[in-house]
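Q: What residues go here?
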């Protein structure tokens, strides 16, 4: 890690959208609208004075800052994405309510590569040259990292979607030969046109091709994998997530896709390949400024300068708000974690990223749309660098949806039960993160959740 990154103290925090946001055409819902978005009626009580709404909004930004909206972020490309309030989520026709008969989240672990398909193993590893100065042996240890264990996902979902049962899908998925395999798409690539995804005695045809950017030898068609997922859906499933080690793409034009959900159909897929820590250099990921340190004003100013946005000096309010609160606590905790160096650290980093994406896709299965109110786990993302800057937590609007779905719809509780649910869920998240505190994302999340708990108690 370059010395200047280590030296950055993240002194002033960026808790509002960046100075670039305006240029991008993003207009954040104001504080009254944000408040109203958390209520079932969709209204903020009219007799609350403007000043008290503003004061509350400033206070809450120390826990829940605004989306950063940096150049090439999702909100740069989609600045007018429609907000989904709690009220609009409640009335969403496509949304599946969890019921006592359909409440289980299933996790299907990575399909096993059967011996006849041994060539598919190579497809999971990116084709990159070892870094200059490092010989092949040094980097191959990272290259050969095993993708995270399914059990880790099961445990994380259990905390994040506290109250919903989570189970590993009982059957082992397998990559098998597709009978009418078809000619290889081109001789040089020797990629079969189709491979088979086997579940029990059923096999689904999956289209294959080389990845257009040349990073992976073989890439699989996401829609075909989703077809297999629909067929697998157990009767008691609220939803199912498939984890694949191969690079995937959606449609002919698409280069690649990291994960995708068809929420109404209760299915989603996440790939591990593009999240491999070995790709960080290529993606220009600044490990010292991933969440929570992504809210460092100096870092944000640097990224906005690329678009000729002059940095504004820190205001008194900004300096004041940077001293304490959950985001500050998260940064302090994450800063204590040394940069990942061992293979164990690398695997934890890989898992942390995937865990964040996986709960996002499952969030779509819960009927949640991309969030435009706050920095939030449900924000849309336009690339790996942005992915690393986004938080693992749900903002007040999105948390309102999950707490309502679980505490009220599934458990038939009232508003008091819903408040208790929010506390219990944070406790479950703290317990989970406790076991993963060697990783800066989880260490930060733990510190953040502990502060939140104190605030709401
Ligand atoms: Zn999404
Ligand atoms: Zn949100």
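A:
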């Amino acid at each position: 890690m370059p010395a200047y990154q280590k030296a950055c103290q993240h002194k002033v925090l960026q808790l509002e959208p960046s100075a670039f946001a305006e240029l991008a055409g993003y207009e954040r819902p104001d504080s009254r609208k944000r408040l109203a978005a958390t209520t079932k009626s969709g209204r903020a009580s009219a007799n609350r004075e403007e000043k008290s709404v503003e004061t509350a909004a400033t206070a809450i930004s120390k826990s829940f800052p605004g989306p950063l909206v940096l150049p090439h972020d999702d909100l740069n490309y989609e600045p007018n994405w429609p907000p989904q309030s709690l009220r609009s989520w409640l009335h969403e026709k496509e949304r599946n309510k969890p019921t006592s008969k359909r409440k289980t989240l299933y996790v299907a672990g990575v399909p096993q590569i059967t011996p006849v398909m041994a060539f598919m193993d190579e497809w999971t590893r990116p084709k990159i040259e070892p870094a200059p100065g490092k010989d092949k042996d040094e980097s191959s240890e990272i290259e050969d990292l095993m993708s995270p264990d399914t059990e880790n996902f099961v445990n994380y979902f259990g905390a994040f979607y506290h109250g919903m049962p989570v189970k590993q899908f009982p059957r082992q998925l397998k990559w098998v030969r597709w009978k009418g395999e078809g000619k290889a798409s081109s001789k040089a690539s020797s990629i079969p046109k189709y491979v088979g995804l086997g579940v029990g005695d059923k096999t689904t045809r999956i289209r294959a091709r080389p990845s257009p950017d040349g990073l992976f030898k073989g890439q699989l068609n996401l829609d075909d994998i989703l077809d297999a997922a629909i067929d697998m859906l157990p009767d008691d499933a609220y939803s199912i997530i498939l984890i694949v080690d191969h690079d995937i793409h959606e449609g002919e034009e698409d280069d690649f896709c990291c994960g995708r959900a068809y929420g109404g159909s209760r299915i989603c897929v996440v790939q591990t390949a593009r999240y491999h820590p070995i790709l960080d250099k290529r993606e220009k990921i600044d490990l010292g400024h991933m969440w929570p340190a992504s809210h460092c004003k100096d870092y944000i100013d640097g990224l906005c300068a690329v678009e000729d946005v002059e940095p504004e000096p820190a205001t008194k309010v900004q300096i004041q708000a940077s001293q304490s609160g959950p985001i500050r606590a998260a940064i302090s905790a994450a800063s204590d974690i040394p940069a990942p160096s061992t293979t164990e650290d690398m695997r934890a980093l890989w898992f942390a990223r995937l865990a964040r994406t996986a709960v996002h896709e499952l969030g779509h299965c819960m009927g949640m749309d991309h969030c435009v109110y706050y920095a939030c786990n449900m924000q849309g993302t336009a690339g790996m660098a942005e992915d690393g800057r986004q938080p693992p937590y749900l903002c007040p609007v999105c948390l309102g949806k999950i707490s309502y779905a679980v505490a009220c719809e599934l458990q038939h509780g009232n508003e008091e039960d819903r408040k208790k649910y929010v506390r219990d869920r944070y406790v479950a998240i703290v317990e989970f993160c406790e076991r993963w505190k060697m990783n800066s994302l989880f260490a930060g999340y733990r510190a953040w959740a502990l502060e939140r708990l104190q605030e709401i108690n």
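A: Context that may help when evaluating the design: The two ends are 39 Å apart (CA to CA). The first strand starts at residue 104 and ends at 108.
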